[in-house]
Design brief:
- The structure holds two protein chains of two kinds.
- By secondary structure, chain A is of the alpha+beta class.
- Chain A has three domains: 2-46, no CATH class; 55-159, Uridine Diphospho-n-acetylenolpyruvylglucosamine Reductase, domain 3, CATH 3.30.465.10; 164-262, CO dehydrogenase flavoprotein, C-terminal domain (Enolase-like, domain 1, 2-Layer Sandwich), CATH 3.30.390.50.
- Chain A is built from ten helices and twelve strands.
- In chain A, a hairpin with a 3-residue loop joins β6 and β7.
- In chain A, α9 packs antiparallel against α10.
- Chain B is α+β, with helices and mostly antiparallel strands.
- Chain B folds into two domains: 2-74, Beta-grasp domain (Ubiquitin-like (UB roll)), CATH 3.10.20.30; 76-156, [2Fe-2S]-binding domain (DNA polymerase, domain 1, Orthogonal Bundle), CATH 1.10.150.
- In chain B, a hairpin with a 2-residue loop joins β3 (47-50) and β4 (53-56).
- In chain B, α2 (77-89) crosses α5.
- The N and C termini of chain B lie far apart (54 Å).
- The chains are: A alpha+beta, B alpha+beta.
- Chain A binds chain B through residues 2-7, 9, 28, 30-32, 35-36, 44, 46, 48, 92, 95-99, 101-102, 174-175, and chain B through 1, 17-19, 40-42, 44, 47, 53-56, 59-61, 63-64, 105, 108-109, 123-128.
- The complex binds flavin-adenine dinucleotide and FE2/S2 (inorganic) cluster (2 copies).
- Flavin-adenine dinucleotide (FAD) sits between chains A (26-34, 36, 47, 66, 94-95, 103-104, 106-108, 110-111, 115-118, 152-153, 177-178) and B (40-42).
């Protein structure tokens, strides 16, 4: 249970940032993850009045506020077109519509959760994260940023441009956490692959060995899938063993590549 | 702290704690259709509409609802009445505990997508767990209602 001493709706990012610097404060996104914890906080800082719940299409990118709910991303026509439906595929398995109307992009990325479908997908979109204090950085840099950093995630930008994207996950049962999550994108002949729910946070692989340099076929897709599966570090938990994940990984990477060819 | 919100069309001023959950606030106001099923954001029993959007009231602070419109099944009787009989006709409910959340989310679905396919119904209601039924009865009930509605509208043209 989350116990909260005082609730503050921040009137500016500066106010939210200042309040959040105390160890006894917490920033509220959708509060879904926070609520799972047994914890008492002095001040809960709500960002809901700061206009961060908008998806704005700009000339060269989509700018997504930290408080945008996952459901809004899932049904946004521009983001579906940009990702050929991969955005919806990555999000639609997360619990239920009512849940995704509450869970925010900011909370989903700031937590850098091991099981995250969201972090896995955004890793292959060349996305940038804007932190209030530390500024703009690539999502890959952000994924490795020290976890104890007390900053505000303000928005995420996803560049426009020619990019083919595919997302697949394996779940033991519908709406459960993924056993493995996999996203692959291709832009300008370069392939980027993210593997999440290993069960650690998503890690990114590119085609360093040139396995796909002659294009994607069943054989080259299989070879790249096997290479990623051998490189990635997997662990075991109640949802699946490391060995099972390794096998699933090779298959999901290959399937993503094959599906990209159909786009 | 004191907040103001509109619950089922009525303006309210309520004294709450900073960590009061919306589910507790609406139940204190007599909206007992809103059930606590899991409290781990998994079951959908506590679904309410917040400014028309279905959310899990067990996972939203009452303080965040300040200034907004909240609707529970108590305030949506007319809209629900149209189709709940079709679900009942299928014997889809057994203990009935999941029903209010199910009905509210069906209302949200039909507002957003008045003519859903079976797969779209399944996807929209995936976050509403039912421990008794196996979901097929509810799906048949909604399908029968949609077929009936189409015929009614067609017949009235
Ligand atoms: C039961 C359950 C099942 C889930 N299943 C899945 C799943 O299958 N796949 C998946 O990808 N995810 C899943 N999730 C995670 C979920 O989708 C969200 O990612 C998670 O709840 C965090 O989002 P939130 O908006 O609720 O953040 P919160 O719980 O509010 O916050 C999470 C953390 O981020 C911080 N934070 C929030 N917003 C900001 C901000 N703007 N700036 C700085 N810090 C911030 C908070 O202080 C907190 O530390 C699940 C969660 C639950 C509870
Ligand atoms: S009680 Fe809210 S989701 Fe189960
Ligand atoms: S009828 Fe019993 S939980 Fe659904």
């Amino acid at each position: 249970m989350l116990k909260i001493g005082s609730y503050v709706r921040a009137k500016s990012l500066e106010e939210a940032y200042t309040l959040s610097q105390k160890r006894s404060s917490v920033i509220l996104g959708g509060m879904l993850w926070l609520k799972m914890q047994n914890r008492s906080v002095q001040t809960a800082v709500d960002l809901c009045d700061l206009g961060l719940d908008k998806i704005e299409e700009q000339e060269d990118c989509f700018s997504i506020g930290a408080m945008v709910p996952l459901r809004a991303l899932e049904i946004h026509p521009g983001l579906q077109a940009l990702t050929q439906g991969a955005m919806a595929e990555a999000l639609k398995h997360i619990v239920g519509v009512q849940f995704r109307n509450v869970a925010t992009l900011g909370g989903s990325l700031y937590g850098r959760f091991g099981f995250s479908d969201v972090l896995t997908l955004f890793q292959v979109l060349d996305a940038k994260v804007e932190l209030y204090h530390h500024g703009v950085m690539s999502i890959r840099e952000f994924a490795e940023f020290p976890r104890n950093t007390r900053d505000l995630l303000v928005r995420v930008t996803v560049p426009k441009g020619e990019r083919r994207v595919c997302y697949l996950s394996q779940r033991n049962t519908a709406t459960d956490f993924p056993v493995l999550a996999c996203a692959v994108s291709e832009a300008g002949g370069h392939y980027t692959c993210a593997v999440g729910a290993r069960p650690g946070p998503a890690v990114v692989f590119t085609d360093e060995e040139g396995l796909l340099k002659n294009g994607v076929s069943r054989e080259s897709g299989e070879a790249f899938g096997a290479w990623v599966a051998n490189r990635a570090v997997f662990g075991s938990n109640m949802r699946g063993s490391a060995e099972y994940r390794r096998k699933i990984c090779a298959v999901l990477v290959r399937r993503c590549l094959m599906q990209l060819e159909e786009v | 702290m004191e907040i103001q919100l509109t619950l089922n069309g009525k303006k309210l001023t309520c004294a709450i704690e900073s960590d009061t959950l919306l589910i507790d606030l609406v139940r204190q106001q007599g909206c007992f259709s809103v059930k606590r099923g899991c409290e781990t954001s998994n079951c959908g029993l506590c679904t309410v509409l917040l400014d028309g959007t279905p959310v899990l009231s067990c996972s939203v602070l009452a303080a965040r609802a300040a200034g907004h419109q909240v609707q529970t099944l108590e305030g949506l009787q007319e809209e629900a009445e149209e189709f709940v009989g079709f679900i009942a006709d299928q014997g889809a409910e057994q203990c009935g505990f999941c029903n209010p959340g199910y009905v509210i989310n069906t209302i949200a679905l039909l507002r957003e997508n008045p003519d859903p396919t079976d797969d779209q119904i399944r996807a929209y209601l995936a976050g509403n767990l039912c421990r008794c039924s196996g979901y097929e009865g509810q799906l048949r009930g909604i399908r029968n209602y949609l077929n009936w509605r189409k015929e009614e509208r067609h017949g009235n043209v």
